[in-house]
Design a protein that fits this description.
globular, Rossmann fold, about 45% helix, eight-stranded mixed β-sheet
Length: about 325
């Protein structure tokens, strides 16, 4: 594909959404009620939602994928918490966590994670279990704080340059192309504006909600998304920096060969998927394997499920991988 067209399309994305960066999001104060899970922690003048369960050391920190929140880790967090202390948090702009501008790059989020740990007084090394496109955040934090991270488990995680490959591979007019991304992000911005106006309804986005969180929390869960424009603006910006390849470049700028164990847990291929989806799945898996290449202690685990949320469909696989990494570190 013509790289000039790709660059022009990416510039179009930036120009379309730049105005959203100047929106005074602090003026939008959604009424989400008091947190029904976790607690709010003050970090440099803003609130961050944190939820810890279980006992024991070392702690396992959960890093959300895009559009995920603390509530979407449940009940998996409780299951993992039967083995050690497990903490989850909402990134800026998600759930009850206050927004912190439009710079939703992986590097910026990694710095905010470090600030959260400082505010909590967390000083002991820990493990990180990162899901989907939360992986670049975990990779950057681990690279810059190697004494604090005992190991990474990257669960169906975004591989380096995956999004750039998608943008270069698929033709204009498809949902995966730059033009398709522009269309989708325009839709997301529409959701944000509707949420700010109190006009986003369940029926508008019923397909967006996962069944597990819906069953556990119902209207409380829906409220976090339907009435929170920060959620949609944050998702929009995180997605934008991902598809532009910014996050991948940031990871590559800081990672080095390491003895830190890194495990990739990869969802199975769906043999019934359309050819385009199978091609994307192959590249997604290839990128995940590459995520382990800079570790001298790599491991790749193939899940039986083809669901992206492996921790919901196959929690025992994720828990066992985490416990095996912890046991291996203890033996050293």
């Amino acid at each position: 594909m013509n790289r000039r067209r790709i660059i022009l399309a990416l510039l179009l994305i930036v120009s379309l959404f730049w105005t959203s960066a100047t929106i005074a999001q602090d003026d939008m104060a959604p009424d989400l009620g008091e947190p029904f899970i976790g607690e709010l922690v003050a970090v440099n003048g803003r609130d961050v939602l944190v939820h810890c369960v279980g006992e024991g050391s070392p702690t396992i920190w959960l890093e959300n994928g895009w559009a995920a929140m603390v509530v979407t880790w449940q009940p998996f967090q409780d299951q993992l918490g039967e083995h050690s202390r497990v903490c989850a948090y909402d990134r800026a702009g998600m759930g009850w966590s206050a927004p912190n501008g439009s710079d939703r790059t992986a590097y910026n989020s990694a710095q905010e994670f470090a600030e959260l740990l400082d505010a909590l007084g967390e000083s002991e090394p820990f493990y990180i279990l990162a899901w989907s496109c939360g992986a670049p955040i975990a990779q950057i934090y681990a690279a810059e704080n190697p004494d604090m991270v005992l190991g990474l488990v990257l669960m169906d995680a975004c591989g380096l340059d995956y999004d750039r490959w998608v943008m270069e591979t698929y033709p204009f007019g498809t949902g995966q192309s730059p033009a398709g991304q522009v269309s989708w992000l325009e839709t997301v911005r529409g959701y944000a504006e509707a949420a700010a106006a109190g006009e986003l309804l369940y029926d508008d986005i019923s397909w967006w909600f996962n069944a597990t969180s819906s069953e556990l929390y119902g209207e409380l869960y829906y409220n976090l998304i339907l009435h929170n424009p920060h959620y949609w603006y944050t998702y929009m910006w995180e997605t934008l920096y991902g598809v532009m390849g910014v996050n991948s470049d940031q990871v590559k700028a800081v990672i080095t060969q390491t003895d830190m164990p890194i495990t990739a847990i990869i969802a199975a291929d769906d043999p019934s998927a359309e050819p385009v989806a199978q091609s994307r799945s192959w590249m997604f898996s290839t990128g995940q394997i590459a995520n382990t290449a800079y570790s001298n202690n790599p491991r790749v685990i193939w899940a039986e499920t083809n669901q992206h949320a492996i921790f919901r469909a196959e929690p025992e696989t994720v828990i066992n991988a985490m416990l095996e990494m912890m046991a291996g570190s203890a033996d050293e």
